[in-house]
Amino acid sequence: MNMEKSSTLVVFNGDLDKAIASFIIATGSAAMGNKVTMFFTFWGLNILRKDEYVPVKKSFLENMFGKMMPRGANRLGISKMNMGGIGSKLMKKIMRDKNIATLPELMEMARDLDVQIIACAMSMDVLGITREELIDGIEYAGVATYLAAAEESQVNLFI
Amino acid sequence: MNMEKSSTLVVFNGDLDKAIASFIIATGSAAMGNKVTMFFTFWGLNILRKDEYVPVKKSFLENMFGKMMPRGANRLGISKMNMGGIGSKLMKKIMRDKNIATLPELMEMARDLDVQIIACAMSMDVLGITREELIDGIEYAGVATYLAAAEESQVNLFI
Amino acid sequence: MNMEKSSTLVVFNGDLDKAIASFIIATGSAAMGNKVTMFFTFWGLNILRKDEYVPVKKSFLENMFGKMMPRGANRLGISKMNMGGIGSKLMKKIMRDKNIATLPELMEMARDLDVQIIACAMSMDVLGITREELIDGIEYAGVATYLAAAEESQVNLFI
């Protein structure tokens, strides 16, 4: 058994507010010297999408899902009071005004702190998301990899 | 203290996508040799409802709640982009087309792997759901039973 | 390392049903002799707001957010079938009729059982919520305090 402390987060939701909470916990834990693994699944995968449109051959349904889901950290809505994106814009404005780290900044911080970012391969298949559409520097794995990390972790969360 | 590894999941939400995630984690963990307990509470109880209508004497409010909530694993919506059930149907079609296990199949797998399925007695009381309306082979208990399992578990999640 | 058992909950959502679930788990765990910490962040802060309006000098955006978010445990909606507040009212009526503890009663119980209630300072800043607006007898801290508690806990949940 590994004696190093660790935290493992499942990021299931793709809302801006929950994404921010996930990365604040992840970077906080990594800054305290813990090994941190984030496992992005279902709508959480949208957080990892590249900002720009990536042309990929997809089935009709995959294409439709892809078009309807937000493309990357800058386009996420918030889980309450989103009001068609206005809530999300306001929250980002407030955070900028108060000098609180934005989601892209938190994600960069996570990378600098060696937080392990894993995209759930099965969810990618279900939602028709390909590797080319996701940001660089991440890993791809399934539930067994997640569970192996989770079993050794002191802090396990499903967000 | 029990030296066997274990996972305990609270399944609070009754969305198809979260139910699938719950059972993938539960069956994955059980397949790795862990003891797995799933505690279904509030809307999560809808996952355990029988497919067919079960006539039970209920109060007006209980009846209304019962009618408005989805009856079983085949009728759940998804937590995002459900679009009145279209999103849920599309996700099920995609999963069938790609040969990914459906929720009813995952639930059968969970049973075969001896995953312990507990329905929260207090939530059943609040939502007016009776034992006759839930699938067979499950247990009924309260928060103390959940907590006793959770305290011994390496992986605890609230889904 | 602390040998006392403990549970640590992040309460991110501000829905009545999730708040009730949080406090049932928290009071249940405390009643079993565990140290319990609840960390309220983002919309979860609304659970801790005082019932009455507290005049505080705020920016335009903070004021708007403050007006749109529910003020305290008695005004929360439920996460499903809220129907503009009707669902929430019905659930409260059912719980009263069945003599199940209401959210304010559960919160009082939590206090009696010495459950530690922490409001997330960063989220307060983002949502423009001040100390004067929150109930008495709580603490204020950041993610490092949360993580320190979480790392020592057997049960960690994100609700």
TrEMBL record, chains A, B, C:
| Family matches, as InterPro entries | DsrE2-like (IPR032836), DsrEFH-like (IPR027396)
Q: Does the keyword Transmembrane apply?
A: yes
The transmembrane segments are 20-48
Q: Provide the alphabetized UniProt keywords.
A: Membrane, Transmembrane, Transmembrane helix
Q: Does the keyword Transmembrane helix apply?
A: yes
Q: What is this protein called?
A: DsrE/DsrF/DrsH-like family protein
